[in-house]
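Appendix C. Worked example: PTS system cellobiose-specific IIC component
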Amino acid sequence: MIWVCVIVNSFFWFCGVNGGQVLNAFVDPVWLQFTTENQEAVAAGQTLQHIITLPFKDLFVFIGGGGATIGLAICLFLFSKSRANKTLGKLAIIPSIFNINTAILFTFPTVLNPIMLIPFIATPTINALITYVSMAVGLVPYTTGVILPWTMPPIIGGFLATGASWRGALLQVVLILVSVAIYYPFFKIADKRNLEKEKATVGGK
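Step 2, the predicted output written as structure tokens:
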């Protein structure tokens, strides 16, 4: 179910609709129950049963907000050639650390931008796959049931969500690097087009 939810959530966001608001009423009660059961298992000294929890979704899958755009924010901040994108990168990088990406969604934009459709859906889906497998094979502990705000910055969030495990923090670092790698080639195409438009505008004056 997690894969369908991630893809549908991302597609709604791509269309300019808040995917979380559409889906959360249906799926969050289930994931909250799983989160609570993990919390109770920790308190009872029992084995954790659930990989899919609210922190799994909020802190590992959608790092940087809908579309897991923290990688795109880093690309904008570090690699932009377009003047507009350079400015956006400076404005968007700090909010992205707190999983707030409104500026990127509607200013870059990712919303209704055909160039960004593939990375916008693929990145959180791959994040979910990497996180699930990492926890399933024991590389990273399950989330312990602690409920953290979705605005919790990465590394700190991964550390706390997995019971103060450095492996949870490291997993988030890996996911951020994966996000950068996926978004980068698509970002370069969009940035080149913006740069050409800016040069044409200046040349036409």
